[in-house]
Amino acid sequence: MSHKILYSPKEVSEMLSKGDAIIVDVRDKEDFNKGHIPGAVNIPEIFTTLSMTTPEGIQEMQDIFTPLFRKAGISHDKTVIVYEDCLNTRYGGYFQFSLFGLKDVGILHGGLSKWLNDGLPVTTETTTPAPSTFEANIQKEFIATVNDMLSAIDNADIKLLDNRDEDEWRGVSSSPYGVDFAPRKGRLPGAHWIEWYKFMDADAEIPLFKSPEETRALCAEAGLDVNDEIIIYCFKGARASNTYIALKIAGFNNIRNYYGSWNEWSRNPELPIDDEILTA
Prior knowledge:
Helix content: 25-40%
CATH topology of the largest domain: Oxidized Rhodanese, domain 1
CATH class of the largest domain: Alpha Beta
Strand content: 5-15%
Number of domains: 2
CATH superfamily of the largest domain: Rhodanese-like domain
Largest sheet: 5 strands, parallel
Structural class: alpha/beta
Oligomer: single chain
Strand order of the largest sheet: 1-5-4-2-3
Shape: globular
CATH architecture of the largest domain: 3-Layer(aba) Sandwich
């Protein structure tokens, strides 16, 4: 199995022509129907599903995604490549597939935007793959649960990384879905903050991840070292999944994603938060 994560459009095109990969489009069905990479299957639920990290929440996540993965022909013996419009829209899907136990998962670097920019074709024809017998094998070392987070707050050896947008970090908005979508505003006590956009080259025509050296320097400025144990959180685990990839390709190996994130944490009034409104 490959440990490669980022694939160029040329590499993906060659893999598809040889039948060496399944390619998954995580955009909305409406956008998918307007044009997608030939052979792609559409699983927008990877982005839209709000998951919790209680045992019941993790089981519910499996109940949602297992039939979707089976219908898409996903199996443990095939490489899965995921894509979106570009890296700053739907945050990949790499983490979700890896969490479910798939060992060979990659990302089309630059997404559909880069694919089109490189002159590669799209189609409106749909693909109906042969269903698989996929079974989830949750990789618990990738994910932090709400109980893990409660313990981490009091553990100086674990660094918490909040990568939400600035208004959420400052405590003036509860979510990207609206100021009052979640019941509380603020941040987890003691968390460090790096806005998720900063892990990508914002000046590029098509956003791509920054170099490993740039990512390590950015983290160092926020007090995070490549050898630290780090748990990333956002609102529902999606932006954290994006940052997870950025850190992983930069050599951070002791990282987890609190997949329930602020959506889960803020809904339990017994869980501690720092609700001071920070100045801009």
